[in-house]
Amino acid sequence: xxxxxxxxxxxxxxxxxxxxxxxxxxxxxxxxxxxxxxxxxxxxxxxxxxxxxxxxxxxxxxxxxxxxxxxxxxxxxxxxxxxxxxxxxxxxxxxxxxxxxxxxxxxxxxxxxxxxxxxxxxxxxxxxxxxxx
Length: 133
What we know:
Elements (H helix, E strand, L loop, with lengths): L4 H28 L2 H4 L3 H22 L4 H4 L6 H18 L8 H27 L3
Helix pairs in contact: 1-3, 3-5, 3-6, 5-6
């Protein structure tokens, strides 16, 4: 399936923007209402969705050739970018008390698995469609 320029330059960035706004809105409301404690699967959903979005954004940036000086680096793969984003997020969660110290290591490991799960799905969807070999 071939993407046309209209999809890649207009529709995809708009769709990703809407998904990010929805993601951040759900996260904010969930923190405000303490939904992460009440709804056991919400943390799984959000980390998986976040991993998916980070890798999808990486492919979008690569496809439209934004930041060519940075994106041309061979070591800068989408899964490395995802790993760095997850490390930064987990440090943020710890710093601002979004997790309890009692189960921090187990929660972090589980969050990484979920984030990588979402990232792998995005990787499988977009890798062969967006990067010219």
